[in-house]
Design brief:
Distance between the termini: 20 Å
Number of domains: 1
CATH topology: Aminopeptidase
Order of helices and strands: EHHHEEHEHEHEE
CATH superfamily: Gcn5-related N-acetyltransferase (GNAT)
Amino acid sequence: MIKLVIPSSKYKQTFISAVKEIKKLQGFISPSVQQFADYDLKRLEGNFENYIVLPLINTMNGVNLPEGFVSATEFWIIKDENFVGRICLRHELTEFMAKYIGHIGYMVVPSFRKQGIATAALKLVLQKAYERSLSEVLVICEDDNDISKHMLIKAINTFGGYEDTPQEKDGKKMLRYWIKTIA
């Protein structure tokens, strides 16, 4: 069983293990996975709280946001008290985000994929979105991301929603899925 938690130093070691696993990946890496590959291991080990946890808490509270960013809650996906991924809920969207990014972004650590973790996390975050008075959320993925496409179509069929007009970003077709939130 998985749960969503607010980032915490409690999960430091399993978070660092996930980063090390991701750094070993070869070939194409999606932007959400690349973020983890870019983390500095020395900074993670040395000052996890200030390097990772506090900036995420600030983003959740709308503090010190870079230009073009909005407040967002990053939930860590936890299974058996281990960090296995992340799912982010943006509280609102800019025009750019409404075209290319959406309300929700997620990443599951490669060794935990194909276990239904992303689907379970999506269901939980749809409840969190409902609590924030969002009646539906936009999730966007690249056209060649077959696993995400399958999951999002399944979510539309389960919770309701629809596919929106795709957009193109950097020469890639970006698919857009509106999914109803759940109480």
